[in-house]
Amino acid sequence: MPGTTPLTRCPVVPVVVIDDAAQALPLGRALLAGGIDVVEITLRTSAGLDAIRALRALPDLQVCAGSVLVPDQVDQVVDAGAEFVVSPGLSRGVLERSRALGVPALPGVATASDLMVAVELGLTEVKFFPAGLLGGPAAIRALAAPFTGVSFMPSGGVNQDNMAEYLALPAVPAVSGSWMVEPALLAAGRWDDVTERSAAAIERAAKA
């Protein structure tokens, strides 16, 4: 199956829901200024693909496509320039298409059964989603016990107040969240705030 995803590159991965692709470049620059060099641009809006294309202009920023649900979307995001794909759940079709295109994929898991399928498919890194509703750090700690070779990226309900608790777990190299890239910040062009929140998140991650 697809190779490992770059979870060890940056301990905090912003999850971006973008309404205007013109926001992509200033957003990317603001994240880099705050020390974050990985970003997940979701396909939840029609601007997602164009935003991924725009971010090709920032070679220091590693761009992932999020909310990839079906194999055809893998082709679309790779054509747009995404370097890896993230899904909310585990789809064999998405994983197989990612492998065919040579792009790492990070599927979402929620249960031990999901993890057994992931391990069977040769995966060693997964997204744990929605982390907050599934039991948070305690759930990951319990699941990591039998799945000793798996790393988790919690997403959903992760914020600046609880991220350190997740990152304190040996099985969690990175978390993902949206507090530093809230749509209101993007809409208002508050790029300094994005940078400030990003830098604060990196600082908290370092302490964790």
Strand content: 15-25%
Mean pLDDT: 96
Structural class based on helices, strands and sheet pairing? alpha/beta
Tertiary shape: globular
CATH class term: Alpha Beta
CATH architecture: Alpha-Beta Barrel
| Element-level helix/strand string | EHEHEHEHEEHEHHEHEHH
Number of helical regions: 10
**Uncertain stretches of 5 or more adjacent residues:** none
Q: Give the C-alpha Rg.
A: 16 Å
What portion of residues is helical?
Answer: 40-55%
CATH superfamily: Aldolase class I
Task: Find the count of extended strands (DSSP E, 2+ residues).
Answer: 9
CATH topology: TIM Barrel
Q: Provide the number of structural domains.
A: 1
How many strands, which pairing sense, and closed or not: the largest β-sheet?
6 strands, parallel
In order across it, which strands form the biggest sheet?
A: 5-4-3-2-1-9
Describe this entry's structure for a reader.
Helix content is about 40%, strand content about 15%. The chain is of the alpha/beta class. It has a single domain (about 10-200), classed as TIM Barrel. The strands form 2 sheets. The protein has a 6-stranded parallel beta sheet. Strand 1 (about 10-15), helix 1 and strand 2 (about 40) form a beta-alpha-beta unit. Helix 1 (about 25-35) packs parallel to helix 10 (about 190-205) and helix 3 (about 70-80) runs parallel beside helix 4. The radius of gyration is 16 Å and the shape is globular.
